[in-house]
């Protein structure tokens, strides 16, 4: 399976999202086991954020990764836009590191663009990098115009990734954002890659063609959606699941090679965008 290059490292193309995890004491161990199941099956990327459960997701990740070699993992966390100032970002970073019980993050993302000037945020991120507390930094929920502006800021060229919502039903970014990122060899981190749990996910799995493709590959619809998401070798998908069996299924999706015919069939139901679309969010 193709690995994806991110911040100078090659990683497995399916990671683990942790939104809504770590909040319930009675589910804590089960969720930790789900994360470990992913790691045991080759996952390296774990995505979390200070916003998730006010740090609960980060605490869960710390507990889950305890038995593993930290250097083999690729930990991502995110800073809230309101904390992305020169004064506050180092505090947020320190708190995230404490909750994660680690000395450094592999990637630190601005969760979305707020009112603090991007120049100031980048300066704070670069400082964290020079201190060895973050290996690389990037952005999340950033569209073409803002990404273009970031690239023109001193050190903006060091932006290592952009994390946005992307799945077969949310393809808007293929019109302009994906080509722009591909040109710069900037990987995409796709959240909600199977759009599970909302109406889109339900509709997608009812599609006859999707079911047929899944049967052909001896897999399920969600695995096909994930295989589609990472098809270009420049995307890391971060599905979220607290269920060990689902996590293992998600990881196995990386083995599925969709044919040109499969892709053509999927394109006919969910066509590529023919014009600019607003960024899909949450």
Please provide a written account of the structure.
- With 282 residues, this protein is an alpha/beta fold.
- It has helices at 28-40, 56-65, 89-100, 118-130, 144-152, 177-183, 199-206, 208-216, 221-229, 244-252, 260-269, and strands at 4-6, 9-11, 16-17, 45-47, 74-79, 107-110, 137-140, 159-165, 188-191, 235-237.
- The protein has one domain (4-269): NADP-dependent oxidoreductase domain (TIM Barrel, Alpha-Beta Barrel), CATH 3.20.20.100.
- Helices cover 39% and strands 14% of the residues.
- The protein has an eight-stranded parallel beta sheet with strand order 3-4-5-6-7-8-9-10.
- The radius of gyration is 18 Å and the shape is globular.
- The model has no long low-confidence stretch (mean pLDDT 94).
List the helices and strands and how they pair.
Elements: E1 4-6, E2 9-11, E3 16-17, H1 28-40, E4 45-47, H2 56-65, E5 74-79, H3 89-100, E6 107-110, H4 118-130, E7 137-140, H5 144-152, E8 159-165, H6 177-183, E9 188-191, H7 199-206, H8 208-216, H9 221-229, E10 235-237, H10 244-252, H11 260-269
